[in-house]
Amino acid sequence: MTTRETFELARTRLAAGLRELYVAPYRSTFARARRDEEDLFLMMVLAEALGVPNPVSYYTVELLPAVYDRFHDWHRRMGLDRSPLEHISCC
């Protein structure tokens, strides 16, 4: 291994270590923010089905098949034991 390759390997490891050092304390905060954004997105897609007028329901209805897989996790996180929607029975 040449000196240049050794230097590049050390630089790569140092960058990975520094990234982990700075990101690790905020990892749970980032995960919570991502989950909150996904919950808001799911709420927007299902707004019409939940009885909330949605001016963009024409566009969000196309997204319903994409969010069916995450619907069960979402209503469990919202504290609902059963599905709040009649036409979606996931459990």
Report on this model:
The protein has helices at 3-23, 27-45, 57-60, 64-77. The protein is mainly alpha-helical and 91 residues long. It has one domain (3-78). The termini are far apart. The mean pLDDT is 88. It comes from Georgenia muralis. It holds the Pfam family DUF7990. This is DNA helicase.
- Bin the strand percentage: under 5%
Average of per-residue pLDDT values: 88
User: Class by helix and strand content?
Assistant: mainly alpha
Shape: elongated
For the biggest sheet, the summary is:
none
Q: pLDDT under 50 segments (min length 5)?
A: none
> How many strand segments?
0
What order do the helices and strands follow?
HHHH
Output the radius of gyration: 22 Å
Work out the helicity level: 55-70%
Distance between the terminal alpha carbons, to the nearest Å?
58 Å
By DSSP (H or I, 4+ residues per run), the number of helices equals 4
What count of structural domains? Answer: 1
List keywords for this structure.
91 residues, mainly alpha, 4 helices, 64% helix, 0% strand, CC_star_Cory, DNA helicase, DUF7990
Would you kindly provide a brief summary of this structure?
This protein has 91 residues and is mainly α. It contains four helices and no strands.
Explain the layout of strands and helices.
Blueprint: H1 3-23, H2 27-45, H3 57-60, H4 64-77
Protein name: DNA helicase
InterPro entries: CC_star_Cory, DUF7990
Organism: Georgenia muralis
